Amino acid sequence: MDLVPALREPLKKVLGPATAKVMAEHLGLHTVGDLLHHYPRRYEERGQLTHLADLPMDEHVTVVAQVADARLHSFASARAPRGKGQRLEVTITDGSGRLQLVFFGNGVHKPHKELLPGTRALFAGKVSVFNRRLQLAHPAYELLTGDAEESVESWAGALIPIYPATAKLESWKIGKAVQTVLPSAQEAVDPLPAALRAGRGLVTLPEALLKIHRPHTKADIADARARLKWDEAFVLQVALARRRHADALLPAVARRPRPDGLLAAFDDRLPFTLTEGQQKVSREIFDDLATEHPMHRLLQGEVGSGKTMVALRAMLAVVDAGGQAALLAPTEVLAQQHHRSVTEMMGELAEGGMLGGSEHATKVVLLTGSMGAAARRQALLDLVTGEAGLVIGTHALIEDKVQFHDLGLVVVDEQHRFGVEQRDALRGKGKQPPHLLVMTATPIPRTVAMTVFGDLETSVLDQLPAGRSPIASHVVPAADKPHFLARAWERVREEAAKGHQAYVVCPRIGDEEDDPKKAGEKPPQEGADKRPPLAVLDVADQLAAGPLQGLRVEVLHGRMPPDDKDAAMRRFAAGETDVLVATTVIEVGVNVPNATVMVITDADRFGVSQLHQLRGRVGRGSAPGLCLLVTEMPAASAARQRLDAVAATLDGFELSRIDLEQRREGDVLGQAQSGARTSLRVLAVIEDEEIIAEAREEAAAVVAADPELEHLPGLRTALDALLDDEREQYLEKG
Prior knowledge:
By secondary structure, this protein is α/β, with parallel strands linked by helices. The protein is built from 27 helices and 21 strands. It has a 7-stranded parallel sheet with strand order 11-12-10-13-14-9-15, with helices on both faces. It has a 6-stranded parallel sheet with strand order 16-21-20-17-19-18, with helices on both faces. It has a 5-stranded mixed beta barrel with strand order 2-3-4-6-5. Helix 15 links the parallel strand 11 and strand 12. It is globular, with a radius of gyration of 29 Å.
């Protein structure tokens, strides 16, 4: 939130071009305001030491530690054949653990003189493993002498701020740059209304900036963080409240189902009764559809909780009322699957205009990018004439050529796969804004829903329909206990012998086009193992020739031609394949009730939510499901703890909290989601639930009283900074 001209001063004017360039390229900091809002990640106390045992692998760290010993070794190498190569090994300690530093060649002289036993310093570098021991190679360091005036001044008393840093710019250099611009903090304009700040006993913004960068006590840090959390929560909630306010002013056509229409005919055909949850959520949706403002609702429910049924009934209600409904799916496989299941559920009600179609029937068309020209032409014609009441498709639905007769409802499946432009492009196809229903099977903790999807009302389906079976999940430690892995393949054979089927999931495809960067969702904590992730094509061959010999093994991955993918999926659904070796293309929407076991290889390469999604593909019939999470990670690693958490609970909301606590907020609200820098620096979505809820109430009141924020110029400026061009999509993560 760069707030006023003094804070908009480019860093290159203040710090010089070289430092400014590194800050812009590596930290995304361009102005004095950006730098003032680059807060310390944590603080070290001069008298204390860092816990060296807790250092994360492959990450750039800054530690305070004491030199235990330093040894200079000579060795022979190609460059120094006569044994004149030099290596300095320095061991640093925090009293509980040790870490080795290594310096080579000409780089040994300065540290050999300065890093004497007993010396304390700040060390910064990337943690790696050598000979099974943690080490920092050629770390940068800053001695903590405390006798020179400048040193005492720059470390501001006893608390040393440790900034998010990069290999190109160490924490202490960022600290010195912050000291240079800190006087400008006095000119920061406060975004919080004075009454709100006084009512909650919060310090002013200039004081908060001063205290976060130069705290004298821990109480200073607490004051600053409390204030800055409120800024972040409140400005974001005001942005969302203004969206809700603007949406509520838009006109929409009210869509009420006829008592004897298509929806009633469909309900009469259902061979089961809806769960209480489905009935309750349907009522919420129908109430929204009956209003003359566009519905904006998020429907979240566990895998298999019956979201599709709820969405289909809403779509039929809109067709009943003379409109059309579109279901937007993230992949062709999923669009085809939705189309199949919808036409099966509707039966003759999906045969509008055809012989044998019911009097209430409508036409259900599929529209994807890979359709043939003739089929595509017919689908487009059915949409523009209104012949087709329901359309199911991928991004192809958004193209300019696609015209609707009267689009009344858009259902987006798996929101996190769609960006804001796509959502708006489809909404723009109605004569008036259509109603919008967003579905997700990734359970979202309430606070994340309030923060990310704050412009949507939320409905939750938390019961599973009758007839669903429990899924047992187990971690298979392949490195420690290879016989467990052998047993996993035996279990697959046992299930196949009972007439059931299995999925084997791998992080990678394994063809020559494979991009190692895209291989799975490799968590940041683990970099010690350099083996490439297992690949579908390799694993399928190994299994067919080895432990699963004699079973019908097929592959499925995203780079297969659409017809081949669909054919492979159909064969599996028809029971003609025993084992499907696949990438995460099966993650959402694939429904094969006869599949009872899933083996996820290199499970540590996937995120918690993704594992939970994948697991939901088994146990969809009457036989119990089994999910085996195979990993080579050691028992003490963070990756194993993550897998143990997934194995321990089937509660998606609990898992999403664990996922969020282990990842950083930036992953949830920032780069990974929107391509823009996250605006959350101190607000922690899970920890700060109360602040977010209170900020939402305060924001709603402020926007209701003054939608244009005419009386709150500081807040408007902060809002402009949040919603600048690069963050425009921030509010509706794709």
